[in-house]
What does this fold into?
Amino acid sequence: MVLNTVGIIGKSPALTSVFSVLSKVAPTDSTVLVTGESGTGKELLVRALHANSRRHSKPFVPVNCGAIPRELLESELFGHEKGAFTHAIRSRAGRFELADGGTIFLDEIGEMDLSLQVKILRVLQEKEFERVGGSRTMKVDVRIVAATNRDLEAEVAAGRFREDLFYRLNVIPMHLPPLRERGEDILILVDTFLQRFCENKERPVLVVPSPTRAMFLRYGWPGNVRELENLMERLSILCDHDEVRPEDLPKKVWDGVGQAPPQPDIPQARPAGFVWPVVADLKERNMGLKEFLDEIEERLLTEALGMADGVKNQAAEILGIKRTTLIEKLKKKNMLGA
It folds into this structure.
């Protein structure tokens, strides 16, 4: 069988080991618990499990248990009957019903309340549940795959996660290694992401010279693949030359490799304080007004997202705009993934 890796990029021994387990586990209906740090790509791995399973033509339904308010999560998972609570004006199917025949992915399952964990355990064991406010027992045929960046054994010991549920979920454990343990995969991802973002921006693909590549390999990437991807998008916009030089890298990377960033040259005869752009700046760059203003806005959006580590609420505050305004601007510029 040719393995569909669903966009997981790399060939390091650590990742090859994951692919080996994936090829054995995917065709089964065994419950899988995927662990790994935030940003390692756990959802991609779960999608690969589904894509290589016998259920691949059936629904794949992801649920982020940490992003849905706790009081709404039960209804989201199991559905509700009309009148079950104040705003239940009609009956509604839950995610388990929508996933019937396919795979349901319970991401951040370590965030789930103990009371709801009991109901997940029942679905695992009995393949049945009731909607919120309902009395009819419903049967469902789903494969359950869960993921967490928490140490669930420690959570069990602390009484925050049910031991019986942990062992039902942990039939097949799969651990996605952090980026710092994947060696040359870092450079493969750097080249892949840079090519994609540069092509999207309709600019020549940036070259990454040896000194910069060495820094990428030495840096610890605490945000893993997500951090690397965001940095490559930022560089594809902000680099003024045709290569990514060490001085183009943010202070966080320099701090991470234990070096001080080079001091920028002090411009000659530059007036103190803010300098408004002038028409000569447009002529120098061979741009029209709209194109010039669009580039300025895009650079400011990218910088704010970088300062906020990708958190859009914080980026909006930095820019002094509403979050909805920021989202609209990112959509218009095809930057929503930033």
